[in-house]
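Repro case for the chain-ordering regression, as requested:
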Amino acid sequence: MNIYVCIKQVPDTETKIKLSGDSAVDMAGVKWIMSPYDEFAVEEALRLKEKNAGSTVTVLSAGAPRVVEAIRTALAMGADNGIHVELPETADNNMAARALAGALKKEAKVDVVFTGKEAIDDGAAQTSQLIAEYAGYPCVTVVLNVEYGAGSVKCKREIEGGAFEIVEAPMPVVIAAQKGLNEPRYASLPNIMKAKKKEVKVLKAADVGVSDADQKIRLKGFQLPAPKQAGKKIAGDAATQAKELVRLLHEEAKVV
Amino acid sequence: MTWQTPLFLVVAGAAFGYSGYKFSHLIKMMKAHQGKKERLDHIAARLVTTLVNVLGQKQVLKKPGIGIAHTIIFWGFLIITVGTLEQFISTIYQGASFQFVGHHLYGAWVMLHDVFTFGVLLAVFYACYRRFVVRPQGLGKSRDANLILLFTGSLMVSIFLMHGFQILGAGAGGEGDMWFAGLMPFSNAVAKALGSFGLSAEANAQLGTFFKWVHMSLVLGFAMYIPGSKHLHVVAAGPNTFLRRLPREKGMTPINFEDEKVTQYGAAKVTDLAWKDALDYYSCTECGRCQDLCPAYNTQKPLSPKALIIDLKHNLFDNKDRILAGKLDEVTPAIDANVTEDVIWACTSCRACEIACPVFIEQTDKIYEIRRDLVMMQSRFPTEVQTVFKNMETNATPWAFSSAERANWAEGLNLKTMAQDSQVDVLLWVGCAGSYDDRNKKVLRAFVNLLKKAEVKFAILGNEEQCTGDPARRIGNEYLYQTLAKANVETMNRYNVKNVVTACPHCFNTIKNEYGDFGGHYEVMHHSQFIAKLISEGKIKPTKPFQETVTFHDSCYLGRWNNVYEQPRAVIESLPAVRMVEMSANHDKSMCCGAGGGRMWMEEKIGKRINVTRTEQAIATKAGVIASSCPFCMTMMSDGVKTKEMTDKVRVMDIAELIDQATP
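-- result from build under test --
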């Protein structure tokens, strides 16, 4: 099988975002990791490969040169090769999806494309569907379990209210992984060593038909949320407390 | 030449031939081990430790009762073996004897021989009493042990029967002139008893010869039995003591990841361990002292250090044919039905087993080599550990915090970082617990107060400090450990750091003993040592009375790993009006809090919780304060006190906090 995984490099979960002025995020000192949901995607791809002899897993990522580190992480987990589509730092979900779909279209045969259900930086949950749209594949999101048939997949996905639904789709298909799909592996040392020697193909935006016009979102400015304030204790008897609570909710919190 | 000579040559030749053949297998199996341990340096120190511990039986005598019995058996073995040798020689060359050494020396030896034969017999009776009546838990049941006691006892009895009949039959064609018979009080007593049978001198002489053959047959039988028995101990324990890890060598052995010829990291099979590890199995006589003190075993975890050594030995022996045939790739995995992954993960690396072992077996080495294989080669470890590795990889701390917030604990303290001023007397190594854990941040603040009161010129590394890598190393991720270790050494060397002080025994051990392998050579002090020094120099004067009973909980990495037992106690005793009490398990027999060896970050799913068990021991002293000197012990003991719902009666305090509150 020809298995593909689209991943995104994001700031580490513990990063405290700082701004440089009000127009950009301060990237200095940011630790970059593979988005955690993408790890489930990589793991699922590797398990599928292990069940089907002769399969290959190719990892794709679109973005600045630094994203190659995330590709290497996936290669260390056991993916076979990588494709890096170079995009500017400002690239949005649409541009990334265009680039990734374009790269997939250049491949001889695609059976399954895995992604995370969302990236933890912007939390947009857009890219998987957009890739599917641009590549002309069906897409199943928030997937917790996949059964593989001949030429089709049966996915269990989470829906509102803690319920699940089963979706069948023909291959090639884009599957967006939810936490719980699997337990991602920790790269073994021999695989880390091997990953250093694996090939990562580099494509320019133009190679996959992406232009500046594909960037639909232009960020105007950045603002940090107001720092969390200490809790307030309202004194007095029940009637006074209730009155004061309503006043605070109305005047300070502005919610009633 | 009589019939005895050819018969003996044939029998002894066969017995020693068989035994030698078995021993050659043992040596070949040892040599087949792929791991490396260099143990032929510091010959003088090795000779001293061998004299003290083999001839002097120092470690053995740490347990008085059975220690004395063992010492008698051991010395008896040395003295009686000379007699056995004389017997063998005189059977081949009739009439040959060691009497050429002179009557005085020979007579003295004869007397010692007689006394020790009796002593060994008594010691064997005591050992039987202990094994069959007292039945200490660590000993367990062993057919092998029963046979060994039977063999040893029979050997002594056969000596007395032989000597008794020889004395009665002296001059009647037996042993000739027995001028030394009077020097054998116990044999004479036996002779007197045997004399009551009223046999002729000839008959007695013949019975003397008969029991000589009984004795020699037992010796030869024993020689054949030993290679396949735990009694192999008598041959291996001496060399194992000589080849022990000397006290100066505390660190784990680094792996050279640059060496591309190395394809196996850690031990997937017993043969991936080192030859010394095999010698360890050969030396083990299953006394159970390791098991008695093991915190994992004592809280119903599947690990017993004794069982581990026996099981690895069985694994080795089960693979004997493959190893002897040179088929190392067919050797079965070290993890098997007995040595399970749960066994390997249960270890807290407290080292109580190694310190207790009378023959210096290195139990933890095996566990940590197997962990290296599980983690680095197979990615198999408790699931919760993966987050720990990831945190260490991205944020250089096992906990989920940003490396950019490492120095936040020091807000408002006006501390200098090395980047601001590296011209200081000492670098304060904060460690991850001091940086991120709320309870331990308070300990650090107390220690900083003390440093300021004593006007010590110090600085911290701030956000440049990274985890020492100790948790990764103990869990088995040597690769991650080395990444962190090298980064820290690079940082410290850049600032030309000479002196380091830290409140964390794990950081202390790693920087002091393990960073040398990566070019980091520093004078490292634990804060207990540092505070003790400041007090003795009069730079800190705890004057406020502390009307409390305090019990000190030893940290494994301070105590057993680095032999620091007295300074933390001295620090506590410097508090005016303080009363100190010891827990039943203290100093080198202290029980681990349960957090070492990476266990701090693993769930404890099997058996009773180690920290609760240790806290119960502390509570039993009725002390109002449990003093700790390690951030992990602090966490574990505090949790233990909470579990026991004793927070209103018992406080857990770091020694720095104790001194800070008493120092104006």
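Ordering looks correct now. Chain B touches chain A through 22 residues (CB under 8 Å).
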